[in-house]
Amino acid sequence: MRQLPARTIRRRVVGSLTAALLCAAGLATPAAARDTAAPPATGQAADAPRVKLPDGLALTPPMGFNNWNSTHCRAEFNEAMIKGIADIFVEKGLKDAGYEYVNLDDCWALPERDANGKLVPDPVRFPNGIKAVADYVHAKGLKLGIYTSAGTKTCNAAGFPGALGHERSDAQQFADWGVDYLKYDNCNNQGVDAKKRYIAMRDALKAASETTGRPIVYSICEWGENKPWEWAADVGHLWRTTGDISDNWGSMVSIMKRNLPLAKYAGPGHWNDPDMLEVGNGGMTDTEYRTHFSMWSIMAAPLLIGSDLRKASPETFEILGNEEVIAVDQDPLGKQGEVVSSQGGRWVVAKEMEDGSRAVALFNETGTAQSVSTTAKAVGLPDAHAYTLRDLWEHKSYNTAGRIAATVPAHGTVLLRVSAGGKWAHLPPAAELGVDGALFVEAGKPAKVTSKVTNLGRTPAQRVAVTLDAPSGWTVRATSPSTARSLRTGRTLATSWTVTAPAGTNPGSYDVTLKATYRSPHGARATKVLPLTAQVVVAPPAGDSLLGDLPWLSATNGWGPVERNTSNGDRGLGDGRPITIGGKVYAKGLGVHAESAVEYYTGAACEKVTAQVGVDDETIVKGTIAFEIWADGQIAASTGVLTNAMPAQELSADVSGARVVRLVVTDGGDGIDSDHGDWADATLSC
Length: 686
Known about the structure:
Helix content: 10-25%
Structural class: alpha+beta
Oligomer: single chain
Strand order of the largest sheet: 7-6-5-4-3-2-1-8
Shape: globular
Radius of gyration: 27 Å
């Protein structure tokens, strides 16, 4: 039996037994314990709902906290944690920033209902009950959320009670406790039609709200399996568009890509939900977490913190508390950002704002710094002599003649707010800093790199000076001018540099910083800083080398780490099995999980990459993926979508002259569930 990630196991408990089989096995809920005030979910027509939204709730995407990503079902999920999070919301200014809901996920209840069919809070986790927790949260000016599933049991293997057939009773219990938000999952659903199940709970929540006067935000969590964006706008206030997120780059990007095309379905009171935030949980860098937060905000996604704030770093609070980024998410116009362009891992996403401005995300999916650009016209702004450009992470404003551009660090996002006209003339001009290509250094040998500073503004940039800083002991020398008296609109100062790492420097990544200072005609000073990475590399060996044995520059994966010479396994390092495709076992290669990218330095000294590729047999029956070989940012070879039923396919690419080769596995367009891919016998010829 194949191993699945913990979150996947949690979701795959979806039951397949019919109610009759349950009764025959003595597992069905006694009739006396079921709801009798309304017909069950199966008896209500999906096309004739009794109560419809909108109801004035969730006019902007909900913001708050959910414990699952940080605690799962572990013992630290308890009353003290929930109260502690509420305290931190107030103490750290998160409440003032807009965070409102403190939500309980699975495992808050006992596994069995009481004799009256009522839910029973776990007396160890919540000794004072849920109402006492709700009262505490409400006293802070916050709201409480709770969780259950549209099935006979919730998703946890312990089998906590689900709400299928108990909708009215459970909804009334939640309302009586003072619950303000319900996350309604999809496990153990017994094959009952999704629309009927989720409509039944919507009607139950509405009825409970009418008796208590407490409205409840309704979060549909059916993982996008039945395209809820097409039918749930009058059923729930938000709906999950994908499977569960994991705290790694590949998972986050895959989910983002599936959510972005759904922009037309989002709006006030009905939001696409790409799952909770992972910011602060430790599986990504701060740069990647800023991308996560930026892209969720420009997608008008719910912002539900998934990290334990009692242990959070200052950097985590800085990301989560950025009110300028939050304002993009919470803009009352309620538009979800749309893709303006996407090429070679360089993305531009723009979101129309209520005041007529545009939020613009320049997102770099790749593993090296990239120039990402667009124009004011392309993002939907009217013609103007100049525009005001606000960097929402720098918290600085500039003027631009219309070009919107930045060199974005690997896995980074520059988030901007751009408006036509305004008081732009007193602002310094925007400038783009960049370098030609990645900085690869062989220890003891000088490497050449060219930096560029380009004036994007309507006004000139004056007294321009550029510096390039490297680690202590390295030698950096400018071999062409690094200053300019003035740069007019569109002009560039290009500076050539040699960078030398001392002999014996270990291979790896080292921080390098490019900085430019300049002034506006009015004397306003500006400083632009571009963090870069220098890679100390070793020239690839001559002849044929197995990639599973060579060092890589970077590796990202949808689940678990990239494995050398075994399958992915998808949990921890070393949990893979022998690479097997279509029954054939391979001793060497790479085991990955979509979305995946593995980069190698080839130093313009290699000619060819070859591999046998396919879905690993450990997926049993699932898995749809596609393989790509990239050479210096261009696709050199690719497969179509491959499935578990297919034998290995040979993939070969000419990579002559390329400095970097990247092996990419995508999800085949249907999400990353079970997408275990193998680069079997992957060979680099130099």
